[in-house]
Amino acid sequence: MKKVKRIFLEELWSFYQWLFLFIPGRVGHYTRGFFLSLFFKKHGKKITIKENVEIYHPENLIVGTRSGFGRNNIIDCIGGVTIGDNVRFGPNVMVATMNHAKIGTAIGSVPKEKKAVKIGNNTWIGNGVTILPGVEIGDNCIIAAGSVVTKKVYSNTTVGGIPAKSLNS
């Protein structure tokens, strides 16, 4: 019964996302933010979600007030994602919370490893950024476009590159 309920909720979520997918402009951004956030674990006010954002396991997502997702974001929340207030995602951002395999093992032969991602307040995540499982990003940070964040980013830091490193002088 538990599996049937999970599948039903996943299908309902997919239909719900599709239903609000094509509303254009700011009206669409705020409409998606309001209605889709009803599925989130916890949410603040004035959340914006631009077009073509995919959120997997929204029941594990916490989003703060005035935070927003850019176009074509993929947010995998199976391991849990917490996003603070005033956080902005540029387009094409990927947040991952799960690994499927380890070197020397066949895919699917080891249990999936889930690690939560936490993003602090007042943080900007640039275009094409990838945030890997277990990463914690502090408050007042900037993640430069195209970066791959593999480890903790301390508050008041700008990082960039692959893997992301501090750009502060």
Question: Please, could you describe this protein's structure?
Answer:
By secondary structure, the chain is α/β, with parallel strands linked by helices. The chain is about 20% helix and about 25% strand. The protein has 2 helices and 19 strands. It has helices at about 1-20, 25-35, and strands at about 40-45, 50, 55, 60-65, 70, 75, 80-85, 90, 95, 100, 115, 115-120, 125, 130, 135, 140-145, 150, 160, 165. A 5-stranded parallel sheet has the order 1-4-7-12-15, with no helix packed on it. Strands 3-6-9-14-17 form a 5-stranded parallel sheet, with no helix packed on it. Strands 8-13-16-18-19 form a 5-stranded mixed sheet, with no helix packed on it. It is globular, with a radius of gyration of 16 Å. The protein starts with a helix and ends with a strand. The mean pLDDT is about 90.
Give the CA-CA distance, first to last residue.
Answer: 56 Å
Q: Which bin fits the share of residues in helices?
A: 10-25%
Q: What portion of residues belong to β-strands? A: 25-35%
Beta strands, count? 19
Shape call:
globular
* Major sheet size, sense and barrel closure: 5 strands, parallel
Mean pLDDT across all amino acids: 91
